[in-house]
Automatic annotation (TrEMBL):
<feature type="binding site">
    <location>
        <begin position="66"/>
        <end position="70"/>
    </location>
    <ligand>
        <name>GTP</name>
    </ligand>
</feature>
<keyword id="KW-0690">Ribosome biogenesis</keyword>
<dbReference type="InterPro" id="IPR006073">
    <property type="entry name" value="GTP-bd"/>
</dbReference>
<feature type="region of interest" description="G1">
    <location>
        <begin position="19"/>
        <end position="26"/>
    </location>
</feature>
<feature type="region of interest" description="G5">
    <location>
        <begin position="157"/>
        <end position="159"/>
    </location>
</feature>
<feature type="region of interest" description="G3">
    <location>
        <begin position="66"/>
        <end position="69"/>
    </location>
</feature>
<dbReference type="InterPro" id="IPR005225">
    <property type="entry name" value="Small_GTP-bd"/>
</dbReference>
<dbReference type="GO" id="GO:0000028">
    <property type="term" value="P:ribosomal small subunit assembly"/>
</dbReference>
<keyword id="KW-0699">rRNA-binding</keyword>
<feature type="region of interest" description="G2">
    <location>
        <begin position="45"/>
        <end position="49"/>
    </location>
</feature>
<protein>
    <recommendedName>
        <fullName>GTPase Era</fullName>
    </recommendedName>
</protein>
<keyword id="KW-0547">Nucleotide-binding</keyword>
<comment type="similarity">
    <text>Belongs to the TRAFAC class TrmE-Era-EngA-EngB-Septin-like GTPase superfamily. Era GTPase family.</text>
</comment>
<dbReference type="GO" id="GO:0005525">
    <property type="term" value="F:GTP binding"/>
</dbReference>
<dbReference type="InterPro" id="IPR004044">
    <property type="entry name" value="KH_dom_type_2"/>
</dbReference>
<dbReference type="Pfam" id="PF07650">
    <property type="entry name" value="KH_2"/>
</dbReference>
<dbReference type="InterPro" id="IPR015946">
    <property type="entry name" value="KH_dom-like_a/b"/>
</dbReference>
Length: 305
């Protein structure tokens, strides 16, 4: 009887997380699914692809789609990233428009609000980073945004600290249609290990380098194989940069930088995959790869078209 009732009321659907770069979209995704699925950093344009992660409870299942921050694209890669975010808008049951409470509404938000006018999908305004503002600053912010869109809900949160994210999940449940379990209850992501491994290396580069380097790199996993003892997982990866000078920076004095990147990435991989890992990383130069369609395809962009 009980089971019958549960079945009838189970809800599920797709939820896209959009917003400007660096507002905390990936942090929110990881917080709600309780696992690091998407890499995070304080550099804008960290996320480059649609990242899917699944949240399952006994009442429902939501498939969250984290997207690249919407920005003025300056390369073919940028065009791809913005399209990856905008393409989700019509294909999901709900859009979470995430803003940073500490930042003034700017041209980026205006642009997104304009885009949202053209879709029929319900939208929640998620005001993130409330741990950084005084509570009194919240109401004026809400009033201002409310004028520009008929948001289904306005939910202030701190994705980093997990403040109010449970309330957000409850509001999402109300918005979801009745539906099936799309994924097994224990599955959090459908991204292949190769993708996550490459992303973790890219994340360490983002954390350890500055200026143009974070935007100039791509990471590929060339080989992943299990050792003869069956225990160690051997991973061979390459970081691509656009110029020789960038290669020098990434390798560092006596190879120190590359060693640090590899060490940090390996520790994260071991934590995530729960096994012993041997990681070797090379740095290669590929001039202006961000504007070369063939290279972008090689690096796995454009796959969803
Ligand atoms: N104080 C505070 N910082 C946060 C919060 N959420 C995210 N951040 C920080 O904001 C920065 C950007 O977070 P990300 O999750 O990578 O942002 P994003 O929106 O996915 O960025 P892109 O992928 O570049 O579009 C990181 O340094 C986070 O630690 C929050 O609730 N409070
Ligand atoms: Mg991100």
């Amino acid at each position: 009887m009980d089971n019958q009732k549960k079945k009838e009321t189970f809800k599920s659907g797709f939820v896209s997380i959009i917003g400007r770069p660096n507002v905390g979209k990936s942090t929110l995704l990881n917080q709600v699914v309780g696992q690091k699925v998407a890499i995070m950093s304080n550099k804008p344009q960290t996320t480059r692809n649609q990242i899917r992660a699944v949240y399952t409870s006994d009442k429902g299942q939501f498939i969250f789609i984290d997207t690249p921050g919407i920005h003025k694209a300056k390369s073919k890669l940028g065009d791809y990233m913005v399209a990856a975010a905008e393409n989700t808008l019509n294909e999901v049951d709900l859009v979470l428009f995430v803003i940073d409470a500490t930042e003034k509404r700017g041209a980026g938000e205006e642009y997104i609000l304009e885009r949202l006018k053209k879709v029929n999908t319900p939208v929640f305004l998620v005001i993130n980073k409330i741990d950084q503002i005084h509570p009194e600053e919240l109401l004026p912010l809400i009033d201002e945004y409310r004028k520009h869109h008929d948001f289904k809900q306005i939910v202030p949160i701190s994705a980093l600290q997990g403040n109010n994210t449970d309330a957000l999940l409850q509001s999402i449940l109300l918005e979801m249609p009745e539906g099936p379990m799309y994924y097994p209850a224990d599955q959090v992501t459908d991204h292949p290990e190769r993708f996550i491994v490459a992303e973790l290396i890219r994340e360490k580069v983002l954390h350890l380098t500055r200026e143009e380097i974070p935007h100039s790199i791509a990471v590929t996993v060339e080989e992943m194989k299990r050792g003869e003892n069956g225990k160690t997982l051997y991973i061979y990866a390459a970081i691509y940069v656009e110029r020789d000078s960038q290669k020098g920076i990434l390798i560092g004095k006596r190879g120190d930088m590359l060693k640090e990147i590899s060490k940090r990435a390996r520790m994260d991989m071991e934590r995530l995959l729960g096994e012993k890992i041997f990681l070797e990383v090379w740095v290669k130069v590929k001039k202006d790869w961000r504007n070369q369609e063939r290279m972008l395809r090689n690096f796995g962009f454009y796959e969803e078209k």
